[in-house]
Amino acid sequence: MPPVAVRCTHRSDEVRVLVRWLLVCLGGALGTGVRYGINLWALRRWGESFPWGTFGANVLGCFLIACVTRYCAERADISLTIRLALTTGFMGGLTTYSAFNLETTRMWQGGQARLAALNFVATTVACLMAGLVGAALARRIAIAG
């Protein structure tokens, strides 16, 4: 069953919910592919000493989800289906709390408590800042457009 809180009373409602669900799934697949690409690039660029790929994907995802949600809040002409495909789908696939947690836990358990703490603090602060900047930028764009 699609994870959308919609009561379907007509066949057209069922089709709309199914299409929405499929677009969220497609967005999630694309976001996951982008995250994998970011991880591959970061590993080639900086190696395995720090989880730069996960860090970058999460910060980028926080920036983008704030942009999209703020822009959509300012502009009512963006459909719910597009909003869900971008936020729940694409950004949901792009960002990864589970990988962040796994990498931080492995650092901690591997005797790298300082690096684990740095990852935790840097990710938390950078994601918060990216979200604030993204929301502010999207508001300006929405108001100007």
Keywords:
single chain; mainly alpha; about 140 residues
Give the arrangement of secondary structure elements.
Elements: H1 11-46, H2 52-74, H3 80-94, H4 97-109, H5 113-144
Helix pairs in contact: 1-2, 1-3, 2-3, 2-5, 4-5
Summarize the structure.
The chain is mainly α and 145 residues long. Helix content is 82%, strand content 0%.
Strand content: under 5%
Give the helix proportion (percent range). over 70%
Instruction: List the uncertain runs.
Output: none
Global morphology: globular
Q: Which structural class fits the helix and strand makeup?
A: mainly alpha
- How confident overall, as mean pLDDT? 92
Helix-strand string:
HHHHH
N→C terminal distance: 37 Å
Q: What is the number of E strands?
A: 0
Give the domain tally.
1
Task: Describe the overall structure.
The protein has 145 residues and is an all-alpha fold. The chain has one domain. It is 82% helix and 0% strand. It contains 5 helices and no strands. It has helices at 11-46, 52-74, 80-94, 97-109, 113-144. The protein is globular. The mean pLDDT is 92.
